Amino acid sequence: MFSMTRAAMAAAFRPAFAGADLREVYLDLPGHGDTPANCPATSQAVLDTVCAWIDHHLDTPVLLAGGSYGAYLAAGIARQRPDLVRGLLLVCPGVTIARHSRNLPDEPPLEAPTGWLDAAPAALHAHLDAALGHRTPAVVATVLAALNSGGPGDPTFQQELQNGPGYALPDENAEVVYDGPVSVISGRQDRIVGYADQFRAMRRYPRGTYTVIDAAGHYLPYEQPALLRSLTQDWLRRTHSNSPD
After folding, report:
1. What one-character DSSP code corresponds to residue 83?
2. Regarding beta strands 182-187 and 85-91, do their DSSP bridges make them parallel or antiparallel, or are they unpaired?
3. C-alpha span between 231 and 213 (Å, rounded)
4. Whether CATH 3.40.50.1820 fits 6-241
């Protein structure tokens, strides 16, 4: 997820993969966590850096999982380097990078107890109000712990990446089909990337399963960990069988 670290992603995904007997590898993207900003501030350069790391360090193809911006990149890797990817797990994936072009829910947010955001810094209140569907102090505490975990990152690089002309992948809108096992999991109350664009993108995944979860937003792994685990286990079963049955 953009600006987050491998420690945060391990906290999000490790419980979902428990018992799967996999070698799990979590990466800090360039300019994130402990990885220096060692490439140009474009999403294509970040994607190429991840692909180069996979080529050098892992036996391919791999099972590739990501959340939000990481899922946006993972889908891009499947388009550009399908030889690297045995299956895709996309959680609250970005589909279109430009905020004005995203189809977001227009229903009011779910009710929340009074003071549910009190533990969060004031600067994060608007973001968490838009991002969270499961709106409780316990969820806020879990998300804050994730946001504060791992290395410091490079905020200047992240800002340049997010605000620059290269934030969108050049093939973002390409209708390239990836025919491996895919699971797309979205939050019904995700007002950061929504859930409708993700459903429309399923035409690119003939072996894809799409799920939208109520009482979940953009931080779905921390909001609904039990459901994420169940859906991840189903995806793993399909990747192992490598058949539609």
Report:
1. G
2. parallel
3. 11
4. yes
What is residue 242's predicted lDDT score, i.e. its pLDDT?
A: 61
Structure tokens of 19?
Answer: 């018992």
Across the range 220-237, mean pLDDT stands at 97
DSSP per residue over the chain, as a string? -TT--HHHHHHHHHHHHTTS-------PPTTSTTS---S-SSHHHHHHHHHHHHHHHS-SSEEEEEETHHHHHHHHHHHH-GGGEEEEEEES--S---GGG-----SPPPP--TTTTTTS-GGGHHHHHHH-SS--HHHHHHHHHHHT-S----HHHHHHHHHSTTSS-TTTT------S-EEEEEETT-TTT-SHHHHHGGGG-TTEEEEEETT--TTHHHH-HHHHHHHHHHHHHHHHH-S--
**pTM listed for this prediction:** 0.95
Residues 63-95 have pLDDT tens digits of 999 999 999 999 999 999 999 999 999 999 999
